[in-house]
Amino acid sequence: MVCAILLLQSARCRGMIKKDMKKIGLAAAGTCFLILGVLGLFLPLLQGILFIAIGLVLLSLASPAVHALVAKYAGKNPRLASAMRRAERHVLDHPRTVAFALVFLLIAIAGISAGMLFLHRAPAPLEAGIPILLYFYDPELDQGPGGTQCGPKGLVGVARTLPQTEAPLREAIALLLRGELSPEERARGITTEFPLPGLVLTGATVQDHVATLAFDDPQHKTGGGSCRVAILWRQIEATASQFPGIARVQFSPEYLFQP
């Protein structure tokens, strides 16, 4: 008799535990769907209203208070009340389906989130360029007895950035020869005679701290008055001399930039 009573009590306890575990599972699943539904109101990938409805159905099965609240508001709409009852019956008849659906949904959301983080991760920093100065001329900075002195005092370095290159000297001189100045730089009084028609840089080498710059000047635009020529070659010399290892600059052919 005693054994029978103990067995009966044990069976009841197992039933109560099983029932409690089911309620806990429904409450947990309902809470998850409710949270996903709230997030879905703001995120385009989630169906917010649908998930909130599923969450309320699950919570109503786990909590009498929630069930009463849902029944109160659903009762005002017969179609909604009927849909809620069908959903509750489906959950009770197919609890594993709901559990599998929730697990699959959470895995899918985790996968989508990981994919979005991968696709929208911070872009790799672009390879930095090479900051340089191009030297142009401002005659107002180079005034003296008799006017413009055509000396180094008038040289003005303007900041530029070269793309990564194995020949920064050549690229810098080629950029200088284009004579590109912004309107703001010209408004400051900075001038240049570059570009010169036909003048092309054909080579740039450094040996024993001497930079040799070779040019092709078919129209002889590098000659002229001593003041003009001095300004032209000072611009090139100052631009080339900024690079490490260059102590002197010479031109090829040697007759270039001669008065």
Keywords, separated by commas or semicolons:
259 residues; alpha+beta; 2 domains; two-stranded antiparallel sheet; three-stranded mixed beta sheet; disordered N terminus; 8 helices; 53% helix
Structural overview:
By secondary structure, this protein is α+β, with helices and mostly antiparallel strands. The chain folds into two domains: 16-114, no CATH class; 130-252, no CATH class. Helices cover 53% and strands 15% of the residues. It has eight helices and seven strands. It has helices at 2-40, 48-62, 64-74, 78-93, 95-119, 168-178, 183-187, 226-241; strands spanning 130-137, 143-144, 147-148, 155-162, 200-207, 210-216, 248-252. It has a three-stranded mixed beta sheet with strand order 5-6-7. A hairpin with a 2-residue loop joins β5 (200-207) and β6 (210-216). It is rod-shaped. 18% of the residues are buried. Mean pLDDT is 78; it is low at 1-11 and 13-17.
Q: How many domains make up the 3D coordinates?
A: 2
Largest sheet: 3 strands, mixed
Helices, by number, come to: 8
Shape by Cα distribution: rod-shaped
Number of strands: 7
Fraction of residues in helix:
40-55%
Content-based structural category = alpha+beta
Strand content: 15-25%
Can you lay out the helices and strands and say which pair or pack?
Blueprint: H1 2-40, H2 48-62, H3 64-74, H4 78-93, H5 95-119, E1 130-137, E2 143-144, E3 147-148, E4 155-162, H6 168-178, H7 183-187, E5 200-207, E6 210-216, H8 226-241, E7 248-252
Parallel strand pairs: 6-7
Antiparallel strand pairs: 1-4, 2-3, 5-6
Helix pairs in contact: 1-2, 2-3, 2-4, 4-5, 6-8
